[in-house]
Specification:
7-stranded mixed sheet; FAD/NAD(P)-binding domain; alpha+beta; 10-stranded mixed sheet; 43 strands; D-Amino Acid Oxidase, Chain A, domain 2; 908 residues
Amino acid sequence: MLRVLQSRHPKLMLKRNGICQRSYANKEVVSSADVVIVGGGVAGCNILYQLSKRGVNAVLLERAKITSGTTWHTAGLVWSLRPSDLEIKLLKDSRNVYQSLEGETGEYAGWINNGGLFISRSKARTQEYLRLHTLGKAFGIKSEILEPKEAQKLFPLLDTSVFEMGLYSPEDGTIDPTMVCNVLLKAAKANGGKVYEECPVHDIFYKHNLLGNKEVTGVHTENGFIKTKCVVNCGGAWGPRIARFAGIPALPLIPFKHAYVVSESIPEIRNAPNVRDHDVALYIKVQGETCQIGGYESNPLIMDQLPDNLQFHLYDLNWDIFNVHMQSAASLCPKLATIGIKSTVCGPESFTPDHKPVIGEDPNVYGLYHNCGYNSAGMMFSAGCAIQLAEWIVKGRPNYNMFAFDIRRFTPAQMSRAHWARESSFEAYVKNYSIVFPNDEFLAGRDSSHDALHQELVEDGAIMQSRAGWERPAFFLQGEKVRVQQYDWGGAHDFPRNVDQKYEEILKGEYTFGFSKYHDVIGKEAHACRNAAALFNLSYYGKFYLTGPDAERTAGLAFTAKMKNDNRVMYSLMLNEKGGVEADLTVCVIDGGSGQLHEPIFKGRGYYVVTSGFSANHTLAHLRRVIQKYKLRATITDVTKQICILGIQGPHSQRILQRYTNSGLSNDAFPVNTHRSLHVTKAPYSSENKSYTCRALRVTWSGELGWELHIPSSNAIQVYRALRTASGLTNGGWRALTSLSMEKGYHLWNTDLRTDDNPVEANLAFTCRKNGDYIGNEFVTKAKVEGVTKKYAYFTLDEKIPIYGQEAIYRNGEVVGYLRRGDYAFHLDKPIGVGYVTNKGNKVTLDYLSEGIYEIEVMGKRYKAACYPKSPFDPTGQRLLGNYGDMGMDENIYEPHAGQNERAGGVE
């Protein structure tokens, strides 16, 4: 264990380089500004720098002194590799900013490029590092796989007997927080930016516009009122308090005590790389001949609230909690057990429920942007995020797909539960250095939302997964009844562990980069859908009604598809002003109905919109933004909770469903991609001849014959119980369904279809009408005429190995992209992935795609791959029509029912 010699307050060792003298302290503020930034930490300094570079009249307000909140005591580590393409790009941008500041301003910004070394003690961790190594190649990030002896040459203190490999990234480094903030502000002021220290904000003013939405109008400060339409919340751990000034009751951001210690001099480590030993949640930052040692413990201390007047503040280090890092450090580097500690640092840091920052415009107050919640990684990400946020503010949307960081990823149901934020942030802190397995699930923050069928599905063996707070079935284990237990905090701080840990035990079968323990179970569900019929609970989908006098105008602007009022179900995109895809969804044009949930009463034309539940809040916010921007008289009603969806899909789906309805289901009576009202009986031949009305959509996400039944939640259990009695119908989960959809070639938003993808690049130009003024249409037209520099493609491997996405794509021996998503195609019986192929900035044509020889690199090994512009599974869509000739059947073999061959359908 490390020997404690003394503790000196690190604040005394920091040089502030006179920021206070160069800022406006205790002076009256300007009367107006384009943007007001609240908070003078590294996030605030970076966004002021980026906005001022773009000619924006921006003002930064700091209640005390610059960096006095949490920035001043940060370790300042900046890595290059993360298990996310977005994060790798943001880290690269941050490093570019830090490296360029000295040339721009003439002042050293504190950047030290000493490299970084990841340590692996286990096979699974080695596999994770191999995935990082592979993904880095797709972005030109240099890294090397090192044997323990080679790693020891870089960091002489390492004990080679305790680890099996290292991953070295020479572009990593550290940044001095105070120095970089000084230089950022110097550059910002040179471009017209203004900084006011000792200028607390007392309130954020807003008004309700004619549509009833909130808009920012100004900021009330200690030194005067600033009129503005845009405020950026860079309050860090105080971010929730700033949000409350604008009427936002809760921001999912929790302060924790986070600590590190500074060692005495160790000459051997001068110029050595920084170290991360993820398996024991440890990091070591090299600074000259000393090192900072810290990590993420399993029992961190949550802080209820931070006082307003806290500045340059540290807490006493809790050695009972922190000693685990001392022991880990000594196990990795035995010499550290004999080195004394010069100082300790324990300060507040803010953490979020998914360990990602909170960025972007708040959906509840237009003009209020958040830029906080950096989870002790503000130095790493804030410079790159500031570039995107500046684009967001100036041009309406960022250049990158920022959904993973966007405040809109959290639902109102989640944010209304205070304990959700606390327990989820706690688990995110604890799992910060845990291996990121593709199919892992969080234990905290569960059951924010579940549909009316939840208990029925659990009784039938559903193993749940969580998406956007919704519980949905991942797969089914027959005979099991597995409930997700209330979070027990891992037994930390004297919380008793759950007696029932069955769900946690099942998750252990997912802790692999190989095939899941439940691979065959998922395969059986997928085969059931392809060869017979499967029943999927799709109730977590977002479901909205768009109505009002300007509903048609709203649809024309927001939706790329041409809306036809002939019972069509239209697959459409929503684009941003840059032509990027903000959502994909289905839209039904409807008229006012009987007054039931699936047939509401309204005047004029309305639209029933269905989208992914994972991004439903994002979709809803985007639609409302269109209404706000164009001042339209339209209303969006969210009926997600009020309507359940059961999808019955597969070759036998028509035969099975026909037994429960007297409506025609043939291609003539009920064509593909249409919708209608349908009566479903409680059970065939039942003595209780009760029926339930629902809206049926003849669409599937599996690529098979099938229907979605949109049922009022009050009747969903009865309909589900009736269908479950059908012979030959198998319950299927989302793991099977996402595999089926990829095999068919359908897109999944936020992975293979994102806000930085143009529909032409994504092979979705067919969803965009030729004539119309939908948002982003000029970029679609330009891409159609001029061609694109990246193109969506499918890849299959003959080797039966798991792929999950983030694997590098090689064409003729050169990296041309990476897989956005990977899965196993059970019908094709081979791995399948999708990604965008590039051509060094040149156009990508079908000839270019077809003429290449392709390989996919998986954990450092390349495998031959076949490339397809469209999925090889049922490319002409015959199965959607019920044409299963190869199975000796088609949609006309079933016994005729009333009206089955009449387009008008049967008796309704």
